[in-house]
Every structure is written in C-alpha cells, then in structure tokens.
Amino acid sequence: MTQAVHCGDDLKSACAAVLGYSQTHRKGRSIDIDPVPGVATPELRDALIYLLQEGGAGEASLGDKLQALMAARQLLAPHMDSKSRLQDRSRLRDVVFLDLALEVGA
Q1: For residue 23, what is the DSSP state?
Q2: 40-44 own/partner pairs: CB under 8 Å, 24+ apart
Q3: DSSP 30
Q4: 59 in helix, strand or coil?
Q5: Helix ranges, 34-91 (H)
Q6: Is the separation of the CB atoms in 10 and 104 below 8 Å?
Q7: pTM of this prediction?
Q8: Who's near 32: CB < 8 A, 6+ residues apart?
Q9: Which of 54, 57, 66, 72 has the most CB within a 10 Å radius?
Q10: pLDDT at 26 (0 to 100)
Q11: Each residue of 31-79: pLDDT tens digit?
C-alpha cells in the first residue's frame, strides 16, 4: 500500500497530527496535541485506523483499503476549501499534510 517505508511513517505522523496524541516523559515533559476540531471525527478516525492496521488473519482486501483511503480523503476535502469552517487556520497545514500523505500512500 505504501510506496516506501517513509511513506508509512509520514502517514502515521500526519494521522497523529490531525487526530491528536499524547506523549509522556519526553525529555522530562509531556506533549499533548489536541485533535483538529471539526476534522477529527469518529468516521475519519475509523478510516485512518483501518488504513494503518497491519495485515494478519483478518487481512483486508486492497479494495477495502482503497475505499477507506477514498473515504478519508473525502472527509478531509471540505476542510481544505476556502469556505472551510476550520476555526484554527494554523491547523490547516496538518489537514493538508494528511491529505498528501494519503495520496502518496495510495
């Protein structure tokens, strides 16, 4: 699914930036990144988690992964429009980077 090892890392990093994350004990400090309001919906979270899952006994088909990828990009698209209601415009970069990571990962 990914073209190179770094593409998978880029996708994981981009997902974390949009969905939010916490890291404790990072050089004596904690890092808390909030989810992007209005963008990090349960539907987007589910699609991204599905895309990031490794194969296994219940390995998904390529078609299922592509459907999840397209669904995630469709959920992101309205937030990159000039009429977007994204309140924190500084987080637009995170949304665009995630979209690009999804495109490269396809």
Answers
A1: E
A2: 41/75, 43/71, 43/75, 44/18, 44/19, 44/72, 44/75, 44/76
A3: E
A4: coil
A5: 42-52, 62-76
A6: yes
A7: 0.81
A8: 20, 21, 22
A9: 72
A10: 64
A11: 888 999 989 999 999 999 999 887 544 566 888 888 999 999 999 999 8
The letter for the amino acid at 103 is: E
Give the total residue count for the chain: 106
Question: How far is the C-alpha of 91 from the C-alpha of 37, rounded, in Å?
Answer: 9
What lies within 8 Å, CB to CB, of 86 at 6+ separation is: 36, 37, 38, 39, 79, 92, 95
Higher pLDDT, 86 or 52: 52
Amino acid at 19: L
CB crowding 18-27: b at 16 or more within 10 Å, else e = bbeeeeeeee
pLDDT at 104 over 90: no
